[in-house]
Every structure is written in C-alpha cells, then in structure tokens.
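Predict structure. Chain length: 673.
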Amino acid sequence: MWTLWQLIGFFSLIKMILQLDCQIPPLVNDCNPCYFSPLKSVHWGLLRTVLMMSLSSLFNMQGLWTALAGLVLGMIFVHIQFPYLLQDCKYGWTLFRIKLKRDGFRKRKPFYTVLECFLERVRRQPDKALIIFEGREYSYLYVDRQSNRVARALRTHADLREGDTVAFFMSNDPSYAWLWFGLCKLGCAASLLNYNIRSKSLLHCFSCCGARVLIASEELKAAVEEVLPTLLEQNISVFILSKDCNTPGIETLLDKMEQASDEPISPELRSKVTMVSPAVYVYTSGTTVINHDKLWAITLYLSTCGATSDDVIYSPLPLYHGAGFNLGLHGAIERGMTVILRRKFSASAFWDDCRIHNVTIIQYIGETMRYLCNTPEREIDKTHKVRMAIGNGLREDVWRSFQGRFGHIRIVEFYTASESNIGFMNYTGKMGAVGRENFYQKRLCPYALVQFDAEREEPLRDSNGLCIPTPEGETGLLVSEITSAAPFLGYCGSPEQTEKKQMRNVFQKGDVYLNSGDLLRFDKDNFIYFQDRVGDTFRWKGENVATTEVECVLVALNFIEDACVYGVKIPGTEGKIGMAAVTLKAGREFSCSEAFLHVSKYLPPYAQPQFIRIQSCLETTGTFKQVKSSLVREGFNPSSINDLLYFLMPRDKCYKPMTQIYYNSVIAGELRI
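Prediction complete.
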C-alpha cells in the first residue's frame, strides 16, 4: 500500500504534468525559440519504451519514483514534439461541450432561443446591470420590462404579428436591446441597417428583408425623410424614437411605449418560432439571414473563449455589426455579464472607459487596435483590468505593438463571416494567426484550401474538372463543405448571389462547398493565416464594401460610361481602400466637385472611392468579366500610371488630381484617409 504522502506527491505531480502546457511557454514559436530542437528527432520507439517501463513499474513500490521520472520524461518529450497538444485537446473538448449545449437547445420544446436565455438571466439576476451607457445603468429587469412595452406598443400601433420583420436604423443606444427583445417576444425578426447608408442604398437594404416596419433614431430623421415617400407608397409603418415629431407619415414610439403595460408577454405569441426561423438580418456581401440556430453559434463565442459572469465587456463596435450585436450583446447575456456600450469608438477615451468600469474583456476589429496604438503614450497605459481582447483583423505587427504597450492581454483572434458555415479561433495566442486546424472541428465541418487563379479570379481545376488542393504553406482559397451540420443559408432575395457562393464538384462529383471568397494559408504547424479577399467584396475600416454597389453609384453620374471598383492596399492599414477605374462618355470630362457630391450622397464614407482612375477602356475577359488583378497591382502611384488619377479630399469637398507629393504623404502616413 502507498503511504498518504506518496499518494499526495503522486497526484500533485500528475496535476503538474497536466498543467505543463500552461506553465511552460510553447517551445516552437516566434517568441520562444526551441533550444532543444535536436530532441524533436528522438525516435518514438525509445519514448514508447520509456513510457511502457514506467507504467509497468507503477504498482511496484520500489519502482514508483522510476515510473514517475519516466512519466515526467515522457510528458516533456510529448510537449516538445506537440507543444500545443493540451491546448488542442482543451479546445476540442470545448467545441464538443458547445455542440452538446446547442443540441440540448434544439431538443427543447418549444425551441430554446436567446430570448429564453435572457429571461432566465432576468429571473436569476434582475438587478444586475446588463448595459452601462453614458453613465447610466440598465438592469436585466429594466430591459425586460421595456421590451414588454415595446411588444405591446408595436402590436397595437403597427399590427405586428409572429413572422414579421422590423428594420432598425439606429446608432448605438441601449434601446437596441429592448427593441430587439420586444420583437422576439412577438416572434418577429430584426433587420440591422447600417446607419451610414442613405437614399437608394437605404431603400435597397430595407427592401431586401421584406420588413413591414422601420424604427429609426431621432438623429437619423433627415435620412428617413429622404426616402419616406417611397416607404409610404409601400405601406411601411415608420417610427422614430421620440415623443414628438411633426413630419407627416412618421409616428413616435417613446410615448406609445410609456402608455403600454410592462407586464410579461404571453409565450403563445411566439409559439411557432423554431430554430430555423429568421432572427436577424445583417448586411455583408449580401443580405444575410441568421436564424435562431445560427444565432446560438455566434452567441456562444464568448463562452468558448472562457468568459464568465464576473467579466465586464467593452463594446465600442456598432450594433448593426454582427460582432457587436450577436457576439457582444448576446454573448454577454448568455454569460450573465455587463456590457459597457459606447455610441461610437473613441481611441482617446477607450482606456479611461475601461478603467472607470473595471472592464475585463474588450471587443475589437483590426483597425481599432491600430488606432489605440497610435494614441500618445501615457504612464498608465498598463493600468487596467483588461485580461482578454476578442475580435478579428489584427495584423501581427499591431498585435505585438499592442501587447508591448498595454500589457500581456490575451488576444483571441477569430475568423468567420455572417453568411459562412465555418469559423476558426486562435485559442493558442499565436501572433498573426486567425486560428489553428483542429481534428474535431474538421470532422464536424470539412474544409480545405484549393489553388486559385488570381488572374481569372476562379479556382484551378484538373483534367477531371475537380479542384486542386493547395500544398502545405501556400496560399489558397478556403472552401467548406455544405452539410446538414454546417449549412449555408444563402442571401435573402438573391438566388443568383446565393448560387454564386456555392462551388460544385470540388473534390468529387456531386459535392457542394461554400466559396468563402478569402485566401488563407496553413503553415507546417497547422496555424491558419488570413491573406487576402477576392471577388466582388473588399473590407475597409471594418466594413464590407460591395464593389458592384459602388459601380452602380458611379455609372449613375452623367459623364461616366463604365466603372470597375476594387480595393487597394495602403501600407500600415488593415484591409483595402476603394479605388475605381472609369471610362467617360464621349465628349464629357470628369467633374471633380460633382463626383464628390454624388458619392457623398449615395455612399457611406467607408465605401466612397478614395482614388478614381480615368481609362480609355476597361479590360475584360473573353466572357466580358472585368479584369481587376492588374489594376490592383498597379495601385495608385502616379509615377507608374499614365492615366489621369484623382484623389478624394473631403475637406475641400471634391476630388483632386493625384500628385507624387500626395502619394508620398499617404504612404508615409502623414495624410490620414
């Protein structure tokens, strides 16, 4: 029999071994070069022998310490050979637990939605702050009662019924939460409109989701009035978050909410909601519908990252953005957390907000982190309680700079898209990576990288018409198999766009994969790196820009014949900024002031072409598809372009001829755009 102290020592040692991956930094990464690299070539037969001898002597008292020494040696060998093994296993186990939880939600009758999760939180912690906004706290119970008022007001004055859709045209505000849950209690869906869009773009996005009602912030009243005649022609009910409004056709909502009861709403009003019922519409490359089942997948990201109810999350991202609304707000509710909401991102106020509210988790997109790093340094930069940052689009150099300046905050970079059926998470903290290949995840949702022809902007195929896998370490197009476990819901109201995203006969005849539109790279250690975006969408300032939409706006100008829009890279920035190559109508000249007024009226700032290049003709393929690859390579350097080139100058409210001085200023970061 073992003595008590031997048992304690044994299990303490086992515990130490299991925690080895957390205590010892990985030996094969950029920051911790492996000084024991020769050990990686140790013959596995020797290791297997050592382990077997250790196990065989475990129950021999005299061989106990020999066994323990052998186990420790074996674990060290495993750690050197597979430095991320324990993290891989832990992440795989986390994914398995999340899957079990989602399966449990699906089996509940009625289906267990995020609303039911919120109501449980209200019962457990009614007085805890759900949202803190501009110095005021809004408790879980307050949000619940306000949502009851919303449901009753809209049911009475807009005749809302289960299955209807309501569009939000709003800036960040706590009312987002109770408006949303009010809709949920009626079994309705919400369409989250970007508050930067105007005119035709606003009407287009609104009509895509089939909404019957529009609710707008008071400060966006003028933008609503611009499209109001069209909305009224379509019998759309228009509400503004105010008690007073003198515009015929626009109803007030706050006064109607005050008159409504805050008593609970009967679940019968939403009895037909299922996991496949539409929950939220967001606008990415197209109009993406997120059903209640997919909403859970996004909501549980915070849980996957290890967030707890004791955390406080800071969310300066716009709530029309999937990351801000679905991951931030819903994820916080699922964990029982408090959200520090800000109307707009402010780099100068960011860390002061975090210190005031004892923030422990922050949300970001790549550009926000760069803006933070560009602020003047302060002695209190590392004085805060932030332990984790969750987001995407963070470049490796900004990552290193951020942690060096603000402390060793755990960065959880992820890769996904609202319409995608695949996502990755960098659970190891590897700088620059968006994730890591994981056996369990790949079994659940098969994916691969395939070779891509940048000139033709299409995947390469072999003599059998099948796609060609990308060799290890090379860049390829990410494709993910569409299955019942990993479905693709498509784009609302656009079957052509939905079909365009699907690739058939990828690895065998009859299979169907989702074309992510993104180029990624897997390295020899199975880390995943985002490389570029292809196709008709690029990303700038955290927003997706649809090139076809910008092209339609440009050709509406009476002096432009045709337009080809694409994104170009600017050193030191995340994403790509918009550029357009255009041809002019016969006998017409480019009007710098008229072009500025036009794009400013019809496009949000992030989608306005920063550079416009005048060409005699636009290059196309044999199938008349525009060729953008050469234009992207040539960029906007006036010294290497013979065409007329213009540069957007918002201060002067016009486009100006691009000079080498302007170009040098942009490249050097002296001229901010």
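Summary: The first helix runs from residue 4 to 18.
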